[in-house]
Amino acid sequence: MHTTILGYPRIGAHRELKFATEDYWAGRADADALTETGADLRAEVWTGLRDAGLDAIPSNTFSFYDQMLDMSVLLDAVPDRYRHLMGFDRYFAMARGVQDVPPLEMTKWFDTNYHYIVPELGPDTRFRLAYGAAAKPLAEYREAKALGIDTRPVLVGPLTYLLLAKPAVEGFRPLDLLDGLVDVYAEVLERLAGSGAQWVQLDEPVLAADRSEEEIDALARAYARLGQLTSRPHLMVATYFGTVGADALRVLARSRVEAVGLDFVAGPGNVDVLASVGGLPRKTLVAGVVDGRNVWRTDSGRALSTCASVLGLVDQLVVGTSCSLMHVPIDLDAETALDPGVRGRLAFARQKVAEVVALGRALREDVPVPQSAPLPEAGTDRAVRERLGSIGDTRRGDRAVRFAAQREALGLPDLATTTIGSFPQTPEIRGVRADRRAGRITGDAYVRAMKDEIARVIALQEELGLDVLVHGEPERNDMVQYFAEQLDGYAATEHGWVQSYGSRYVRPPILHSDVARPRPMTVEWATYAQSLTSRPVKGMLTGPVTMLAWSFVRDDQPLAETARQVALALRDEIADLEAAGIRVIQVDEPALRELLPLREADRPAYLDWAIGAFRLATSGVGDATQIHTHMCYSEFGEIIGAIGALDADVTSVEAARSHMELVGDLRAAGYGNGIGPGVYDIHSPRVPAAEEIEENLRRALRAVEPGRLWVNPDCGLKTRAYPETEASLRNMVAAARRVRADLAG
Question: CB-hemisphere CA count at 13 Å for 345?
């Protein structure tokens, strides 16, 4: 028996990667300094995993931004618009854009909150191994070997890379590039073998989703070609995030790959699928029995039972994680302030490695897993459960009646302008919040500082000419954590950072017990902002699905039940906002698509409870109160119907990077409410010209009438700086006014 993991956090225990990357972007550090930080972080991970007793250690899981972007660079799949740049400048331009060149699209990595950079492939794409012998997986393998550590390089698998790519021209199928792509993979494998690599891991998470017969044939062709190479390392094909299809597993079982990784946490059905294809004779199974996605301690008895149930179906069994540990924080030992009853139920990345090692030893030596303290139980709130049982119909009134009432109450023009919610969080604002946490300033001083910032943001928006304002959210550390810290049933970490994209890290709160709202959470800030202006100010809340998706959620009850508890707390908050005179309330659900099950058959049940939770939260308001929602960076095609079923009065969505494609899709699906397609990309530092925004608006108007079209950025402005924010919003308002004037004429 042996032990391994599929990947490890790359951000550093103290977020070293974030600070080094942002220093490079800001010109405070050069490329050599950034490169040195990366090398230090890799060495720290490899030596730490070795010292923890792990038998097989992965490499090439580090990235300065994203592993899919790394593959595009490795394969020289670089669109022409970036080729005039070199090195890090090209790499980060593909991820973030530069003033004259927009970035590649970005979207969610399956059903996680991690975002990847979408490859852009066309009929002219010609794959080749960029940088040759100095290519990243080769260089990092040799780097680890110089430390005395023989690693297993990890690559995104060829099928996953192509199926997650976007066609550069309409009608093109990236899968048609398979043969040329596999030739480059073959070259990489041969070079790795020449460097001494014994194993290579190829990640194929797309196999946990529904796959067509053509795609299964492509899988067979790719691994037949790679398997027959005369000079190559052993191959491990890893799937995760769900149950692999029987057809796909049958292909892998018949191929020459030496090992297959299966996720038995998100995909308990993999036990049955493995049995149905006759097991993996003469192959190794990497059994993902330690959860790489959530923070709960492993039930060692259940994990060992799963291993025992498949032992007879494989030649050798390796204990591993269900997926990469990049989705969980690094070290629980850093969380000294957590309630002991909650802490006793948790394991972060470092602790999960120890669990893998202990399980492997228990199987190898037939010894018991060292006993931990008994798992504490989750807390229950009888009042919350009784209230949920008494709530009936959650449908809102007639759409036309609501539209008329809101138009009269708000008095907004066609193509109303607004923002998504947050404004830039300056070092000064973050410093005030830090001072308050540390007790260096009083509560009154903190409130004064926040109100001063709110007043500044309101005045700025009035000067810019926006129609519906926001208070800017200076008091909020994160759109989920802020609410979690005020709700019973949640716990927050101090150092539990997880990468969302690039240098954007979040600290997902831990939802451990029944959820309740002890007091109003946002009313004071919203009403203060509204008192400063005659224009409508939006109340800003995070929706129940996103509160779950961006938290580590208890696994002892169905997600649907937990979602209803969060929705009930939000329903009470919305009622208080409405009673305080707030007439526009935004309930963000950027994660609605994110939690969509990978298998078609599982989606109706999920959408039923997700839509139900949103309606439970938002259905208590009057017709004249306008409910907004917001979604970002997801493939929306599979939830078009659900967006309409939420029945928000206005839905704002990411659309800038995808050139307004979603607007037409919504119209085709019969969506009839207000729509705010993001007219510029806030994840890039570039300032869009008014003409560029105007073009996006005119494109959107081909699919939606002016009275239903809103004008807004594609996401919140928290991570941007004020100079670029003001310039972009000024151009946005100018573009909206020009188009509005043309329509009036």
Answer: 21
pLDDT in tens, 697-741: 998 898 888 999 999 998 899 989 999 999 999 999 999 999 999
Find how far residue 366's CA is from the centre of its chain.
39
Q: How many domains in the chain?
A: 2
Which contiguous run of DSSP H or E holds residue 43? helix 31-51
Beta bridge pairs of residue 628: 586, 650
Last residue of a domain, one of 317, 350, 365: 365
Asked if 357 and 427 sit in the same domain, the reply is no
User: d(Cα 560, Cα 564) in Å, to the nearest integer?
Assistant: 6
* Alpha-carbon separation of residue 554 from 377, 566, 607 (angstroms): 10, 13, 20
Residues 361 and 404 in one domain: no
pLDDT tens digits for 286-306?
999 999 999 999 999 999 999
Query: 370 in a domain, yes or no?
Result: no
> What is the pTM for the complete model shown?
0.90
How far is it, in rounded angstroms, from Cα 454 to Cα 473?
8
Nearest Cα to Cα of residue 475 among 429, 526, 506, 520? 429
Q: Residue 396: which of 635, 191, 645 has the closest Cα?
A: 645
8 A C-beta contact, residue 234 and residue 260 = no
Secondary structure of 667-694 as H, E, C letters: HHCCCCCEEEEECCCCCCCCCCCHHHHH
| Confidence at 633, pLDDT banded by 50, 70, 90 | low
Active site residues: 683
User: Is 426 found in the same domain as 321?
Assistant: no
Q: Which domain holds residue 444?
A: 400-744
Q: Are 591 and 550 in contact (CB under 8 A)?
A: yes
d(CA 584, CA 537): 7
Both 358 and 412 in a single domain? no
- Res. 247: pLDDT tops 90: yes
CATH number of 461's domain: 3.20.20.210
In a domain, 731, yes or no: yes
Residue with tokens 């991970």: 45
Q: What per-residue confidence (pLDDT) applies to 660?
A: 65
